[in-house]
């Protein structure tokens, strides 16, 4: 643990001491509590190309170098660390001890931050110790976040002025030059993805929920594909919305809160998230309607990656248990920008592992810096920017779990139909929810399926859906030959990418 703060009076700062903005909802009456609205400046999304791991004798043979796993030398790291800590000693105004995960997978964390709202973000997103637990708290990993410290690439070995640098031997994470809170969240997730697979435990970029009788479902997908939205189901208990552990005992949540996208948020489409924005929720990069204190969730002038963080207990049906049954259903989420994947289909185990290895989706606007419109991407394990080890390591553990527990495996396309992005239409949340409801209520157990000609996925062939007209993607395209060309193009990309992982 990096001891850098003499001013311990800031430790676990009371949230009520932070500057707050009153929010008003669209029905025109004040919320009964207060939330906080902030802007994060230049960076309103993650910067995965500016993430580095110190390459030393411990990490050199283990990390899958290349891609998003950039090495930084020990010499450059020591220079950066020395300069960074000199700055932090005068500017680390807030600190917070916290837990990530639970049971035998739990790790103790300490965050030092320059600004109060990053302290609040940590309070929302991670598990807060009781007063008794704080008395004997010993930190294992330390994260220091200084958005106003800027690296000098020629001296510090970074690419740009902003950076996230991980020393996994010292168990220290340095984040500088960016105020985007998601760097803290995904930094801790990266730590779990490094340590757990070495214990043959699987950490997943996934959400999870459960039924009243204990049946659980995993929603695996990249940011923007619907994990938070679709797991927040009024008829099921929420386990977690983004980072899940699957070990021999079952599934559990890494975090203590949710980090939801707010673009076009409405009470009709996402009532649980809408109502979760209350006292101590932290809203990022949204704007008020002119001359009011009412949030305009359709305003994307600051970012398309507008977000809100809030504690899990802001969701009325969140589940307080720390361990849950092994999944009955695993739903892979993809936002297909080609517009050729079916909105719902069943997978074989081999198809599921292949899909996990290539991680196909459309990277949605704003999630990462520089992404301004949906762009087809392949992100192994549906989380390449957060996976320090080789994709096959995670896939092999997943295969073991699938062999042992035999969950039902599904693919849900939350992307486009009737044509590619720019021509087709985005599949509505309402439609996707109806498909998932049928899956989770086991309505697809004994029906007929037809094998898709291009991908081999099994498509339900019975008229049990409210939106049955879009079940077979070719039927939604006016240009049938255009559909076949695009489907072949995506299929060939699948084959090509599988040979590369």
Annotation, overall tally of beta strands? 27
CATH topology of the largest domain: Phosphoenolpyruvate Carboxykinase, domain 3
- Sheet having the most strands: 8 strands, mixed
Per the principal axes of the C-alpha atoms, what is the gross shape? globular
- Please report the distance between the alpha carbons of the first and last residues: 36 Å
Number of helices: 11
* Helix content, binned percent: 10-25%
The helix-and-strand class reads: alpha/beta
Mean pLDDT: 89
Strand residues, percent: 15-25%
Low-pLDDT stretches: 1-33
The CATH architecture designation of the largest domain is Alpha-Beta Complex
Number of domains: 2
CATH class of the largest domain: Alpha Beta
Radius of gyration equals 22 Å
């Amino acid at each position: 643990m990096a001891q850098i703060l003499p001013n311990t009076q800031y430790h676990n700062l009371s949230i009520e001491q932070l500057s707050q903005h009153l929010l008003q909802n669209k029905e025109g009456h004040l919320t009964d509590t207060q939330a906080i609205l902030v802007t994060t400046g230049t960076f309103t999304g993650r910067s995965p190309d500016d993430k580095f791991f110190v390459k030393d004798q411990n990490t050199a043979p283990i990390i899958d170098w290349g891609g998003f796993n950039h090495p930084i030398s020990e010499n450059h790291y020591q220079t950066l660390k020395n300069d960074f800590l000199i700055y932090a000693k005068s500017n680390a105004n807030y600190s917070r001890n916290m837990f990530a995960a639970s049971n035998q997978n739990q790790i103790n964390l300490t965050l030092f931050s320059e600004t109060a709202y990053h302290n609040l973000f940590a309070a929302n997103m991670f598990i807060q110790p009781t007063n008794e637990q704080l008395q004997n708290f010993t930190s294992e990993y330390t994260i220091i976040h200084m958005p106003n410290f800027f690296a000098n690439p020629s001296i510090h070995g970074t690419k740009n002025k902003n950076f996230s640098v991980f020393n996994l031997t010292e168990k220290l994470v340095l984040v500088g030059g960016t105020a985007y809170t998601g760097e803290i969240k995904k930094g801790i997730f990266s730590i779990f993805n490094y340590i757990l697979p070495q214990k043959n435990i699987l950490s997943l970029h996934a959400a999870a929920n459960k039924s009243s009788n204990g049946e659980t479902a995993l929603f695996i997908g990249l940011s923007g594909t619907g994990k938070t939205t679709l797991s927040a189901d009024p008829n099921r208990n929420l386990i977690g919305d983004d980072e899940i552990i699957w070990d021999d005992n079952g599934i559990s949540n890494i975090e203590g809160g949710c980090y939801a996208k707010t673009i076009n948020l409405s009470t009709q489409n996402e009532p649980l998230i809408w109502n979760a924005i209350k006292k101590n929720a932290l809203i990022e990069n949204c704007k008020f309607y002119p001359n009011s204190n009412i949030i305009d969730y359709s305003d994307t002038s600051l970012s398309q990656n507008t977000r809100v963080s809030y504690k899990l207990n802001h969701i009325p049906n969140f589940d307080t248990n720390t361990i849950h049954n092994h999944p009955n259903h695993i739903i892979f989420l993809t936002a297909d920008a080609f517009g050729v994947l079916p909105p719902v289909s069943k997978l074989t185990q081999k198809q599921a592992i292949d899909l996990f290895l290539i991680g196909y989706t459309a990277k949605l606007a704003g999630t990462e810096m520089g992404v301004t419109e949906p762009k087809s991407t392949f992100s192994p394990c549906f989380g390449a920017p957060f996976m320090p080890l080789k994709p096959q390591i995670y896939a092999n553990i997943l295969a073991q779990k699938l062999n042992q527990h035999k969950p039902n495996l599904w693919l849900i396309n939350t992307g486009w139909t009737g044509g590619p992005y720019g021509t087709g239409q985005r599949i509505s949340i309402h439609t996707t929810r109806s498909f998932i409801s049928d899956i989770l209520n086991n309505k697809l157990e004994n029906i007929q399926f037809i094998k898709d000609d291009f991908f081999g996925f099994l498509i339900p062939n019975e008229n049990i859906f409210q939106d049955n007209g879009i079940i077979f993607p070719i039927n939604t395209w006016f240009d049938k030959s255009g559909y076949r060309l695009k489907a072949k193009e995506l299929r060939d990309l699948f084959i090509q990418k599988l040979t590369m992982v």
